[in-house]
Write a structure and sequence with these properties.
Blueprint lengths: L4 E7 L3 H10 L5 E5 L23 E2 L5 H9 L4 E4 L2 E7 L4 H9 L6 E3 L3 E6 L8 E5 L4 E9 L3 H7 L1 E3 L4 H9 L8 E7 L12 E2 L8 E6 L6 E7 L7 H18 L3 H5 L8 E7 L5 E4 L1
Parallel strand pairs: 1-2, 1-9, 2-6, 7-10
Antiparallel strand pairs: 3-5, 4-5, 7-8, 8-9, 11-14, 11-15, 12-13, 13-14, 15-16
Helix pairs in contact: 1-3, 4-5
Length: about 290
């Protein structure tokens, strides 16, 4: 109802926005506005079938106490990264966090496909409601708004009235978004034929025709996979990117003493390829 004023409008349905909604539920009226029409989770995403992380993946416990507390509250288990026990992954993929939180929230408070274009006060008084308008012209009125999206995206996409200070706008525009523009490529295999360690968790040398800069064992309890971090053009085909990643790691194996694996063509035996492109809008698009 465009005429109803909620206490809080949350802009962004990633982990931050969902966590805020979970804390507000039952205490104040709220609505969550997510630009994506089909999914929540922001930069958390799993492959549809096997639960391979295609977005953010790791947590570091017990140092990250808030995440540890959230995992416990949501009854989500973790497991050590196969080739680096100092790192921890989440059973069911990190996207399980978003799924579990969303299950606790009233669906009618989750407004999908609402890309906020402007945030304005209805009059000059600080107590007047905010009007958040979408790109399609839909409106939401709220006493307060929380923006759980990258600051740079706010600076580029949302018009504020009254305007924010120049200092704040410059800070927002110059902020960086971690892993923006990185394509994660996961290759699924019938079995793990490589030794854990330097063969599966290492930096790679990027360059022309060499898009990957890191690889790790992305396996879950049910699926064996190698996952690559790449700097690839969004126009790259799945086939081309997978082939380039295989060629890069094959060269690395040859250099690091895993020549037998390289000669046996282990890397060419993948059965499925899964890609996810992370951009500044925090939308992930994937294809298999």
């Amino acid at each position: 109802d465009a005429g109803c004023v909620v206490d809080v409008a949350i802009v962004g349905g990633g982990l931050s926005g969902l966590s805020i909604a979970m804390q507000l539920e039952g205490h104040v009226s709220w609505i969550l506005l997510e630009a994506n029409e089909k999914r929540l989770g922001g930069r958390l995403r799993n492959s549809d079938e096997s639960g391979i992380d295609l977005g953010a993946a790791w947590v570091w416990l017990p140092q990250q106490r808030r995440i540890a507390s959230l995992l416990k509250e949501l009854d989500i288990n973790t497991f050590p990264q196969p080739d680096d026990p100092s790192s921890t992954r989440i059973e069911g993929g990190a996207y399980a966090l978003a799924e579990r939180i969303a299950e606790r929230l009233p669906p009618d408070k989750l407004r999908m496909g609402f890309a906020v274009a402007s945030c304005k006060r209805t009059d000059a008084t600080a107590a007047s409601p905010l009007v958040l308008t979408s790109c399609s012209g839909s409106r939401v009125l709220a006493r307060r708004a929380v923006f759980a999206v990258p600051p740079r995206l706010l600076a580029e996409r949302v018009i504020f009235s009254p305007s924010l200070s120049d200092r704040r706008c410059k800070a927002m525009a110059s902020s960086r978004t971690w892993m923006a523009g990185v394509t994660k490529a996961a290759l699924e295999f019938p079995c793990r034929s490589w030794p854990l360690g330097r063969a599966s968790n290492t930096g790679l040398r990027p360059g022309p025709g060499r898009p990957a800069f890191q690889v790790y064992d992305g396996s879950t309890a049910d699926t064996i996979a190698l996952t690559f971090f790449t700097i690839a053009s969004p126009a790259s085909s799945a086939e081309a990117l997978a082939s380039q990643c295989v060629a890069q790691l094959s060269e690395h194996w040859d250099r690091c003493g895993c020549g037998d694996l390289q000669k046996a063509g282990v890397l060419e035996q993948f059965t499925r390829k899964m890609l996810s492109i992370s951009n500044l809008n925090c939308n992930l698009r994937s294809f298999c």
